[in-house]
């Protein structure tokens, strides 16, 4: 049965609005207008790969995969479990993270720096001790580096698998270089600037990684018990399956996550492409950015 254009348009608007409100929060429209509509220099020009990656529907898969990967560092996971409120306010945490990414990627240089300063102030206050007696501090450059490389690797993997326009080799290096601008501002010492450097840094952390009880519980909560209405559970299950399938093989076993290569390359990946195409169709693109004056430090 054919669906009339008005009905299709209404469905598209409703799905897009629901998704946007989940990710951006109740004031998301105002925040988006300020980010994209405020004139001034930006850290990244319109042609930079970071804009293409962070603006694509593949980020839904990449972001979830990044959370799972980041949880394997016991100090990072202890900080999240004790201070982030991911269980009590998961949507608020998602909205704060998505707003930070949007501001630093698309906003004015002044707003980007202000967002970074706010995050650094929060990191400075996050201190504690793990259940094993290991001290942690969220502002530790070594810990910041892990969070950064796990996030960037996950975002880029997702974009290359599910993005509307995957990057070529030079574009991948340029994306990693773009993200280093934000990482350095956050306090990461000498962040990677090419995909090869990113892979090497990620590999160097592997001896430190393990799945603590907090990490396994976080994985169960994220994958199996997210606070979602019934209608959203099936699409989320597709998102979760693809986020798991995208993890490096060595990251799955500690978290007790299955690996079924044949199924993942066919059924799971097919559903991932279908989901991201649907999200891309439903989400209304942001208004065009005003032509910015490039700052001396812009990438």
Automatic annotation (TrEMBL):
Domain of life assignment: Bacteria
Domain ER-bound oxygenase mpaB/mpaB'/Rubber oxygenase catalytic: 52-281
One Pfam family hit: MPAB_Lcp_cat
InterPro entries documented for this protein: MPAB/Lcp_cat_dom
GO molecular-function terms, A-Z: oxidoreductase activity
Matching PANTHER family: BLR2777 PROTEIN (PTHR36151), ER-BOUND OXYGENASE MPAB_MPAB'_RUBBER OXYGENASE CATALYTIC DOMAIN-CONTAINING PROTEIN (PTHR36151:SF3)
Protein name as annotated: ER-bound oxygenase mpaB/mpaB'/Rubber oxygenase catalytic domain-containing protein
């Amino acid at each position: 049965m054919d669906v009339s254009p008005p009905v299709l348009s209404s469905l598209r608007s409703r799905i897009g609005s629901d998704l946007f409100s989940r990710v951006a929060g109740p004031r998301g429209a105002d925040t988006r207008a300020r980010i994209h509509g405020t004139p001034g220099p930006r850290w990244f020009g319109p042609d930079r790969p970071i804009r293409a990656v962070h603006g694509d529907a593949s980020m839904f898969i990449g972001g979830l995969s990044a959370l799972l990967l980041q949880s394997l560092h016991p100090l990072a996971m202890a900080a999240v479990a004790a201070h982030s409120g991911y269980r009590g306010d998961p949507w608020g945490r998602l909205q704060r993270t998505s707003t930070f990414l949007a501001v630093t990627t698309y906003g004015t240089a002044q707003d980007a720096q202000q967002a970074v300063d706010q995050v650094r102030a929060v990191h400075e206050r996050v201190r504690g001790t793990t259940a094993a007696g290991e001290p942690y501090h969220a502002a530790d450059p070594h810990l910041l580096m892990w969070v950064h490389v796990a996030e960037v690797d996950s975002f880029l993997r997702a974009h290359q698998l599910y993005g509307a326009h995957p990057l070529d080799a030079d574009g991948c290096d340029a994306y990693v270089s773009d993200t280093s601008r934000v990482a350095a501002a956050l306090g990461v010492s000498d962040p990677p600037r090419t995909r090869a450097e990113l892979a090497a840094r990620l590999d160097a952390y592997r001896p430190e990684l393990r799945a603590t009880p907090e990490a396994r519980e976080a994985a169960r909560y994220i994958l199996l018990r997210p606070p979602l209405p019934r209608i959203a559970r099936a699409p989320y299950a597709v998102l979760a399956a693809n986020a798991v399938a995208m993890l490096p093989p060595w990251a799955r076993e500690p978290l007790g996550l299955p690996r079924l290569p044949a199924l993942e390359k066919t059924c799971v990946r097919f559903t991932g492409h279908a989901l991201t195409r649907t999200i891309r169709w439903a989400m209304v693109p942001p208004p065009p950015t005003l032509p910015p004056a490039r700052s001396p430090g812009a990438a």
